[in-house]
């Protein structure tokens, strides 16, 4: 800006000389006309350049006005006292007009700058609300700050975590202690630390962070506005983290209670059968061999069923709290479907369940134990929501390199507004929540298992027909 001042001053003075030349040589005019021409030129200079250029132009115009247009012409002598009044009136008018024009220009410039600051503050607040959780919130916050305000470098020190987050500078070496001090209760709110400006970030009277900004050409009010937004953003992020921790604890407790209730319900049938078998054998040592063998077979099968239930319950708890780890092996889904039906013979009872496969299925690599658990959840869901005489169908086919497994029931269907929610953990339809027992975990577990296999679990439903469909890419044998 200051490098251009000599050029602007030269242009302004040249303009005064040009007006003088035109008014004296090219188009001779009277003193009044040329005075208005000078005044107009000075106003233009004041509005485009500044007061200094306008003031010097006024002085030069006054001298030239006196020399060329006030008698006696050609001298700086003023013969008529009235001309002295006119000369000084012209000079005073020029200077006052220049000052007013410059002041108006400065205020307009300040208004534009203030508007720009408000726009940047609004953009920063909006960007702060759109920050996701893919990276530390404070790190993304300082990146957005540097981007929106055009900073060369920025450092944010978060007092609660004791961490530094930097943009445009490798580390806060050299002013680390200054940042720590600014985040203390007795630290200063704003401090110059060339080439940085250090700003304390407070929530009310409590310090929460501090910032070091480089390339910040903003007034203190804007700096404090930025600091307030940063404080709000950090507090909001902490509140969200706390809410997530509370929700995780709540769901963990709900999961524990749900699994206990589910295990108590599921374990009753095999335990009852095992107890009945042992009770009939223990008091009667002379039971015929055929009856003894039958009772022992029942006890053994139900013990195996009980073991599977315990494994499933443990697996459900593990899948719901940790990342799903796959242990794929080469297997055939025909056999898996048969195993699922065989393991659920007690739940199926007299319920018609049909397995329909479109031709032989190729062997593929998948986690057999987890996939069996997922299909079991789908079949169990279908059995719960259909009457005993209504058939449930299971089918599988391969088409275009994709294997599809479907579980279809002919119950009353799932309302359209609930179809997007049924895979959420603990979700149960309000219409059947108190009528049909369940935990709300089964479909969520099945969805997680299928997703871990890079597949999809979808549902299509209307009154009288509901189909859950698992689609899996055919994995190469070496994937196992």
What does this structure look like?
This protein has 480 residues and is α+β, with helices and mostly antiparallel strands. The protein is 55% helix and 16% strand. Helix 1 runs antiparallel to helix 2 (31-48) and helix 11 (368-384) packs antiparallel against helix 12. The longest helix has 62 residues, at 220-281. The mean pLDDT is 77.
What topology does this entry show?
Layout: H1 5-26, H2 31-48, H3 51-69, H4 81-129, H5 137-148, E1 153-158, E2 163-167, H6 176-182, E3 190-193, E4 196-203, E5 206-214, H7 220-281, H8 289-319, E6 329-331, H9 333-343, H10 345-348, E7 353-357, E8 364-366, H11 368-384, E9 392-399, E10 402-409, H12 442-452, E11 456-462, E12 465-473
Parallel strand pairs: 7-9
Antiparallel strand pairs: 1-2, 1-5, 3-4, 4-5, 6-8, 9-10, 10-12, 11-12
């Amino acid at each position: 800006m200051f490098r251009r001042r000599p050029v602007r001053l030269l242009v302004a003075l040249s303009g005064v000389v040009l007006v003088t030349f035109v008014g004296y040589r090219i188009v001779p005019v009277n003193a009044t006309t040329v005075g208005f021409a000078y005044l107009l030129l000075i106003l233009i200079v004041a509005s485009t350049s500044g007061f200094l250029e306008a003031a010097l132009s006024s002085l030069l115009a006054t001298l030239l006005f006196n020399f060329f247009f006030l008698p006696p012409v050609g001298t700086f002598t003023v013969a008529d006292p009235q001309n002295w009044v006119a000369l000084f009136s012209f000079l005073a008018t020029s200077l006052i007009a220049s000052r007013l024009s410059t002041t108006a220009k400065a205020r307009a410039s300040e208004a534009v700058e203030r508007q720009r600051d408000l726009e940047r503050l609004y953009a920063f607040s909006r960007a702060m609300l759109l920050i996701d959780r893919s990276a530390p919130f404070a790190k993304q916050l300082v990146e957005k700050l540097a981007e929106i305000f055009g900073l060369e470098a920025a450092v944010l020190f978060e007092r609660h975590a004791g961490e530094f987050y930097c943009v445009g500078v490798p580390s806060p070496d050299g002013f680390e202690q200054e940042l720590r001090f600014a985040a203390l209760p007795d630290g200063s709110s704003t401090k110059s630390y060339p080439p940085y400006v250090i700003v304390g970030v407070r929530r009310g009277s409590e310090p929460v962070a501090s910032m070091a900004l480089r390339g910040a050409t903003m007034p203190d009010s804007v700096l404090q506005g930025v600091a307030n937004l940063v404080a709000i953003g950090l507090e909001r992020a902490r509140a969200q983290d706390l809410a997530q921790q509370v929700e995780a604890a709540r769901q963990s407790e709900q999961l524990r209670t749900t699994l206990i209730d589910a295990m108590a319900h599921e374990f009753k049938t095999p335990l009852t059968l095992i107890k009945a078998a042992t009770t009939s054998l223990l008091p009667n040592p002379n039971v015929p061999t055929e009856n003894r063998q039958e009772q022992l077979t029942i006890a053994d099968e139900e013990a195996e069923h009980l073991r599977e239930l315990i494994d499933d319950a443990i697996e459900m708890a593990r899948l719901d709290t940790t990342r799903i780890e796959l242990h794929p092996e080469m297997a055939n889904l025909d056999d898996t479907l048969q195993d699922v039906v065989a393991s659920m013979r007690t739940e199926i009872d007299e319920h018609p369940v049909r397995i329909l496969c479109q031709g032989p299925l190729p062997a593929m690599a998948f986690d057999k134990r987890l996939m069996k658990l997922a299909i079991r959840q789908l079949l169990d869901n279908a059995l719960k929501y259909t009457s005993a005489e209504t058939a449930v169908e299971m089918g599988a086919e391969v088409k275009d390199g994709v294997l599809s497994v479907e579980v279809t029931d002919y119950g009353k269907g799932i309302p359209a507004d609930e179809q997007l929610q049924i895979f959420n953990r603990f979700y149960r339809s309000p219409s059947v929540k108190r009528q049909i027992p369940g935990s709300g975990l089964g479909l969520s577990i099945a969805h997680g298992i299928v997703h871990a296999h890079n597949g999809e679990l979808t549902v299509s439903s209307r009154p009288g027909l509901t189909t859950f469909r698992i689609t899996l890419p055919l994995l190469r044998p070496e994937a196992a």
